[in-house]
Every structure is written in structure tokens, then in C-alpha cells.
Hints:
The chain is an alpha/beta fold. Helices cover 55% and strands 14% of the residues. It has helices spanning 14-25, 32-40, 44-65, 84-93, 103-109, 126-140, 152-169, and strands spanning 3-7, 28-31, 72-75, 94-100, 143-146.
Amino acid sequence: MTNVILIGMPGCGKSTLGVLLAKALMMDFIDTDLLMQKQYGKPLQQLVDELGTAGFSDAEERCILGMDVQNTVIATGGSVALEEQAMQHLSQTGKVAFIRLSYATVQKRLNNISTRGIAMEKGQTLKDLYDLRQPYYERWAEIVLDADEQHVEESVQALVEALRTKEEEK
């Protein structure tokens, strides 16, 4: 199987699901947020604060464009779907799965929005961010997983089944 790219809002479970999905599919795992932190030697929030949202997006895109992996589950940062070149690169290497949550669930899960390293403009609310990003996630997704009511193991199993169905469709 080619790569599996997980996209979605912060707090939707990309990293958690990604590790378990990689185990289930016997694939490698990369979290692009951790990759960014390693490359820059700084926490994400510090990078957002120092670079601003546009600079952070540029840095994130460069990081992703520099990736050359196969047979890997890739958990992306929440803002990656807004970065055209990064998403083109990722989508050419594998299947893109959108982990979709309702706004209410995202709001409930995110209690550390000011320290988590979320690329947000000053004055932008979580709802603004959610509304901005949803069409981008939908645009890039080959698979959409509605994870609101699912336990993590159910989500992993649903993704495994959806990926196998996509492979069989080839």
C-alpha cells in the first residue's frame, strides 16, 4: 500500500489514530508536527509565535515537500490542507483520509488552543478556523471518516476497511 495521509482539525485524533493505523497496516508512521519541531528545535507554538501564520505555513509546506517516504501513515498538521503544493505532493504519494468531527466535538476536545501550536490569525476564533478549513479537508479527501461517535479502535477499523475498499477499486 502507498502512504496514508490523515488530515483534519486539531484534536480530531490524527496522531493517535495514525500510530494505531500504522500498526494495523504494518506501516511506518510520521507526525509532521513532530517533524517540524525536530527540524526547527522549537515547540510548534513558539514557531507560530515567531514566524506568524504565513511564515509557519511556508515552513510547514517546505517540511512536507522535503518528505520522501513510502508505506507510511502521515499525520499532518491541521493547517496543511490549506497549502496547495504540500497537499498535491502528499496526495500523489498516497490516499488522503479526512478525520471529520463536528464543531462541538472539536471545541470540547481543544482546551489548550493558545499553547497547542495552532496556526491562527489574531482575533480568529476556533469556529472561524473550523469554517475556513472544512472545505479544504473535503476537497483533498479520498476517504472521509466521521469520527464523532466512534471510539478510537472503531475509527482505526473503519479506516482500514475504507483503505482496503479503495485498493480493491483500482
